[in-house]
Amino acid sequence: MQSKNLAAAAIVAVLGTFASVAEEPPPPPKCDVAAVMAEAQTAQKKAQSVGGEWRDLGKALEQAAEAAAEGDCEKAVKKYASAKSQGELGYQQALDQAGAGNPEYLSK
Amino acid sequence: MKKAIFAVLLSALAAAPSVQAAAPVAKAVTPADDLKLYRSYFMKKFPGLPLDGYANGVYAIDRASRDGWEAIEEFPPYEPFVEEGKALWNKPFKNGKGYKDCFPGGPAQNKNFPYFNKVRKTVITQELAINECLQANGEEPLKYGKGKIASLLAYMAFESRGQKTNVEITPESLEAYNKGKQFYFARRGQLNFSCAQCHFQSVGQRIRSDILSPALGQTTHWPVYRATWGDMGTLHRRFEGCLEQVRAAPFKLQGEEYRNLEFFITHMSNGIPFNGPSFRK
To answer: What is the ipTM of this complex?
Structure first.
């Protein structure tokens, strides 16, 4: 009877160990993305200020944040760089098109 | 060798003006000049098609599409929405008043919208007027784009059939008109497309399995039951979709950008009868 109790206690202890291992996965590596993230967010605000934001810029920012949280630093940096580039191009495009009017082909 | 390089540079410089000529050019033209220019462009593009015909959009320029559309119009999918809109129009608000108190002329209102409110210095669309009516009477505003507002507009459009588009541009509203015009001709989004590239320059051509509709008459048939949506939607919902298609971030429905755009393109259709609600692919 005593040996049965001991065996049960041992099983519980082993399972408990496994459970505590399962509950605490190793933390993902921390990505140093603060600077690239800030650059991308600034580019987004700049594009928004002239109504020139592109559709997928916000999505790229979300994907970058997700990748950083998961510890995929390379992907996070790539996505922030894409967002920054989209912001800058959208801003420039809006400035270039500020004087858009009737194209010449309408008169031909 | 130097001469050869110089010759290449000269030829490159000579080619430059032709590249510049393709870029949009902003001129100090009046809305009346614009109207003349746009009509003349489409009349040359589709000779023989009368102005009223543009109310039918793409179905005015493609026989096969028109046949399919006419068959659908036998049992129009927008009919239940018109019925729902009628019920909404007749349902009194909690304070006992109703839409008829905000729109004394009755539901046939299309000919009055959009217009420029001189005091508020902004373009007022029918959707905005509906929601302002609700709020003034202590009711919750409707969500823009689809749902109840689309049904209400469907009923109002149905009652407005036969009225003619009549947007007046005054010196006070010229800025809003020009902003809408700039929006229409500006390239935007990752694909670098303007509204005009599809609905002026490439009108009648195919984009995948669809035929690009003319800009003229593009505001006469809203709201529409769109097969792609499987639902009824408003003009601004379509604006949103167009922007997403060129990969530009869409603007807020009924925000200033879309209201100015609506002001500009509705003016383009002055004189063309309203025939909404309608069906589109």
So the answer is: 0.84
User: Within this chain, do residues B204 and B225 fall inside the same structural domain, yes or no?
Assistant: yes
| CA pseudo-torsion sign B132, B136, B137, B139 | positive
Alpha-helical regions (H) of chain B = 2-21, 31-45, 63-72, 79-90, 99-102, 126-136, 148-160, 174-185, 195-196, 235-245, 256-268
Report CB contact under 8 Å: B249, A54: yes
Report the distance separating Cα B36 and Cα B195, nearest Å. Answer: 19
Q: Which of B274, B277, B235, B233 is nearest to B76 (CA)?
A: B277
Is B174 an 8 Å CB contact of chain A? Answer: no
Q: Supply the CATH number for residue B102's domain.
A: 1.10.760.10
Location of structure tokens 């009055």: B112
Structural domain includes residue B43: no
Per-residue pLDDT of chain A (108 residues; tens, 9 = 90+): 456 665 666 665 555 555 555 577 777 778 899 999 999 999 999 999 999 999 999 999 999 999 999 999 999 999 999 999 999 999 999 999 999 999 999 988
Pick from B208, B203, B277: nearest CA to B245: B208
3-state percent helix, strand, coil for chain A, nearest multiple of 5: 75, 0, 25
Q: Is the peptide bond before B277 cis (omega within 30 degrees of 0)?
A: yes
Residues with Cβ within 8 Å of residue A8, at least 6 apart in sequence: none
Residues B178 and B68 in one domain: yes
Q: Which domain holds residue B139?
A: 79-159
The yes-or-no answer on residue B195 being catalytic is no
Of A86, A94, A103, the CB nearest to B185: A103
Q: How far apart are CA B157 and CA B221, in angstroms?
A: 8
As a residue count, chain B comes to 281
| Cβ proximity of B272 and B165 under 8 Å | yes
Contact state of B181 with A107 under an 8 Å Cβ cutoff: no
